[in-house]
Amino acid sequence: MPHVLSVNVGRPRPNPWKRLPSTGIDKQPVAGPVAVTSPGPKGTGAVGLAGDRVHDVRHHGGDYQAVYAYAREDLDHWEGELGRPLASGAFGENLTTTGIDVNAALIGERWRIGSVLLEVSCPRIPCATFAGWLDEEGWLRTFTRAVRPGPYLRVVEPGELAAGDELTVESRPDDRRVTVAESFRAFTSEPELLPLLADLPGLPPEDHEAVRRRLSRTRPDATS
């Protein structure tokens, strides 16, 4: 049965990998229920889980990156690849899941966990902080090639969730069926997939704008 193994909240630590004083990537499991709410627009550092926040406010946080989920099965894969243990929260995820292929989730798919309803919004795109945190040579390239990004989710209905809660897929889009993995490939390594994301319901507005810009540059009349 799909469920949440661990709920993880970040504690601030210095960030030597970006020109920022701190990062919240160091996520640690917490006990008991955690309140989850919509954080509002990006730019404040607010995220969905109480007690957590991001520090790169330009690129992270806000409603469409309220919660980040990563599968224990994918962490186990990386343990084998990297030859070292990876605790729940090691990739900076808020929810460590099991029993569900999070990368096969559809953009716009909705998950019920505890009393919270979440909607899959976009894939995680790796950054310099993530690379520095893992401290593996060529990590951004390695992570991208594996196509195991994990999804960000927005909060549709606030509430509480906890480790051990069942994860139920309440709904999936019927018409535009684009997976987290496909959207990740479109953004990172296979731009020929970008038309799949054009005006895709559920995708963050800033991603819609990025897709429009990139597609406009590939049109035959773009340079005429």
UniProtKB/TrEMBL annotation:
<feature type="region of interest" description="Disordered">
    <location>
        <begin position="199"/>
        <end position="224"/>
    </location>
</feature>
<feature type="domain" description="MOSC">
    <location>
        <begin position="28"/>
        <end position="170"/>
    </location>
</feature>
<dbReference type="GO" id="GO:0030170">
    <property type="term" value="F:pyridoxal phosphate binding"/>
</dbReference>
<dbReference type="InterPro" id="IPR011037">
    <property type="entry name" value="Pyrv_Knase-like_insert_dom_sf"/>
</dbReference>
<dbReference type="GO" id="GO:0003824">
    <property type="term" value="F:catalytic activity"/>
</dbReference>
<dbReference type="Pfam" id="PF03473">
    <property type="entry name" value="MOSC"/>
</dbReference>
<feature type="region of interest" description="Disordered">
    <location>
        <begin position="1"/>
        <end position="42"/>
    </location>
</feature>
<protein>
    <submittedName>
        <fullName>MOSC domain-containing protein YiiM</fullName>
    </submittedName>
</protein>
<dbReference type="GO" id="GO:0030151">
    <property type="term" value="F:molybdenum ion binding"/>
</dbReference>
<dbReference type="InterPro" id="IPR052353">
    <property type="entry name" value="Benzoxazolinone_Detox_Enz"/>
</dbReference>
<dbReference type="InterPro" id="IPR005302">
    <property type="entry name" value="MoCF_Sase_C"/>
</dbReference>
